[in-house]
Amino acid sequence: MVHSSRCDADPRLENRVTTPQLRERSISYDVAVIGGGPGGFPAALAAARNGAKTILVERTAALGGAAASGLSILGFLDRSGNKALDGIPQEFMDRLAALGGAPGHFWCPVHNSISPVSSDLVKIVAVQMCQEAGVDILFENELIGAEVEDSQLRAVTVFGKLTNTRIEARQFIDATGDGDLAYLAGVPFTRGQEGTEIMQPSTLVFTVAGHDLERLFAFLDEHPEEMGIKEDYAEGYDVDFLRKTRGHCFIGLTDLVRKAREAGDFSVPRNQFIHIATASEKLLTINTSRVTRIDASDPVELSAGLETGYEQVLEIVNFMRRYVPGFEDVVISQIAPALGIRETRHFLGETRLTMETLYSTETTEKAIAQSAYNVDIHSGTGEGIELSVIEKPYGIPYNCLVPQGVDGLLLSGRTISVDSTVFASARVMGTCMAVAEAAGTAAAIALGSSSRVRDVNVDELRKKLVAEGAMVPA
């Protein structure tokens, strides 16, 4: 057989060789929500239900953000055990409960309340609710550009599967957590804690199966000093509370952690072990990982943080098996698909909520959501947690959602304009969901009146939110 050389190849084939190109497309919506976590999908729901053609862009393959990682949701009850959230957040929990994915809200002397959820059902129910409302979802697309003209955000570009998609919209909502859209649009911001710029640590949570909680509780009966929270505000936080409370968060085993550290078996920069109930009694979420001294808005540092997180997961599992009674046979059920980020950028809005203005008349009268969680600051350099009790819910004014210098954009979730201390309370998922509902509703109102989002009538917005089931102060 004679083989042709390259010079004998059919020259017509050369014309068929082309350089592959990225696909380009352009779409248009009334409202575009960037980010599908607790600060995002409720905003898309609220906007769509109020008549806006809405798209929700999510960088991963699931909606729900941290709620899809296995963490329980905080913020539904206040310090006295009274309900602090309703509307879309409660509707979402009711939908989960109907599928066995949320056993209820449980009062806690440390966290005020714990609301366990099924991480996988979170993903399903969030999509179902968006589909029913007519929200278009674009999964696995990353924000890469923003177009601002005459201080008006006109369009964004997202990238996924070799396709650049340009999205024009009349209103945008930044629910990216780190505020990537606000950053690209040029909204001013600060970083981390006031004065130091130190950021609260990140965490890589994971769930385990094969535990025996009663054996742990029996150990705590014999060693009550291993209940980790001894402050006065935690009165009643004991083994009996853990036994009778289906949805609880255990913090403790300080001596066991110390012994493991002295033996070289525990290097995580945390002085206590934490497990959190899930919707299934067969699964526990472990929130003991602590990744310090990284800026998770930087891709290199974020990647390094994930590497550290994976190392910590294995170390924590080995710690449980060797040191924790009832956890000798635990196995990993799931590792969160992303690093849990507590803090990065803080954006500046028309109003910045501070501890000094938390309960002012103006704050209350302009509030479009409320928060009932405590101020919970995790050390970004050490092992500890600084917790300050919030005795009653406080309001989040609408102008905390309105960024300085850019029109056509609202902040949602943990991107809202608050100081770093208030942020340590307002960052939790329940509060983020309530803020998101307000953001989506405000965007729809602005569209209906052909006004800027910064000019939305706050009294009208508050009345509409209450009419739709949400809770706002006063």
Automatic annotation (TrEMBL):
SUPFAM superfamilies: FAD/NAD(P)-binding domain
InterPro entries in the cross-refs: FAD/NAD-bd_sf, HdrA-like
UniProt keyword annotations, A-Z: 4Fe-4S, Iron, Iron-sulfur, Metal-binding, Oxidoreductase
Protein's UniProt name: FAD-dependent oxidoreductase
Classification via Gene3D superfamilies: FAD/NAD(P)-binding domain
Protein's organism: Microbacterium wangchenii
